[in-house]
Amino acid sequence: MTAAGLSNKYKDLGISIELVESNQIGTIGVGEATLPHIRFFNQALGIDERDFMRATRATFKLGIEFCDWGTIGDRYIHPFGDYGEPINGVDFHHFWLRLWQNGHKSRLDDYSYPILAAESGKFQLPGPDNSEIGSNFGYAYQFDSSLYAKFLRTYSETNGVVRTEGKVIDAILTPETGFVESIQLENGKRIEADLFIDCSGFRGVLIEQALETGYDDWSQWLPCNRAVAVPCEAAGPSLPFTRATARDAGWQWRIPLQHRTGNGYVYWNEFISDDEATHQLMSTLEGPALADPKQLYFKTGKRRKLWNKNVVAIGLSGGFLEPLESTSIHLIQEGITALIEMFPDQNFEATDAAEYNRRMDLNFDRVRDFLLLHYVATQRDDSEMWRYFRNMTLPDSLTEKIDAWNTRGYLLRYEQGVFLPPSWVAVMAGQNLMPTSYDLRANKLSLEDVLRQTEALKHSSYAAVANTPDHADFLDKYGAKARFEPMTSSFSSV
After folding, report:
1. Which H helix or E strand runs over 403?
2. Is residue 152 situated within a structural domain?
3. Residue 305 appears among annotated catalytic residues
């Protein structure tokens, strides 16, 4: 992704880009489910959506379904879109809260077109008029990340990127500055450069092993530290949403692609063994497994600096937050975008690195808070893990966010951060965290008027979904469906 992004923006500026990677080193995919921002990344590269989807065997994604997070038996969908529409300048959820507190209880999900479409297994592209129901939503993809890597490799090489096969075994630093001067490959080749981008995964070959940047461990907030992943044959039609089901010691994902379903169990090894986690995952697959389960280990957190001297860490080398909300690929995109905007000259101004690190720190902090919200906005206390979260001390930034919601349904808005207010509403309301009050401007309308308008919106939303094509049919007619033989082996990635 980094090579593709840089080669697209700088291919006419005389900048030479060399990508060093080794087929000897296995890869850990960081996500098969994505956020809507990846559409704009691909568009910026001039990638045709249909070509991309066929090459990566992608399905559309309207949101994430969460099962058993608030209490066992609960389910809700975090959509890529808002709920309802503002009334007299007041966000819709305040009117819903007013009705709720006056005994008129309904699902907030009933006022979201993307949720209703996802539940019905339907999809269409948003229309041109955002004021119309069926148009004011976003969407993302569920795809094979290894195929996406191959797709972008071809794209990058077409743009002049030179790919060098080799394993990095050492980095040579400049004595005067401590900058990386060159890297040494296992075959004896030495490669010099001005700027090095470390995409070496958890090892952090340059950012950590060479520069000893340090790592902020966030295990006290996000303690799940292992995962087991396996693909299986798909059963039934592909659905336009990802599923995350809470378990006693973590959670399980289900990601439907065109050719298979990705599955995995993210867990905290203090409360479940690797063998038991694997057993629970394999016993809940919807179809025959297509590969042996793959064991993954990680520690949530981030480097203390993602840009240190002349090295920028992107991807797992910069940090990792568990894949609960499909944020890993998004954080890669943020890193690439910020680097393009602050691309250094040979002077390597310290202010560029400082601003890059400030921006990425905010992105990581706010993703961390949003992921943690899922664990602490809960009534569950049926296992040791859930009791741990019920009694933990939260980051101040998350406490402020929850307090503002609890008092009157208010959402603190950030200038930077991937998750907008509707996402926070989805999780807090979906997991039964209900405010004690709401925006008093919602009282300007009579209760009867509020009921009338909300019922009309609900009816319009269901009517729009009724006229939406099935997801599988749309894939085929849109020209996004790959033509392939059934796969016999593969593996799912977190």
Report:
1. helix 396-408
2. yes
3. no
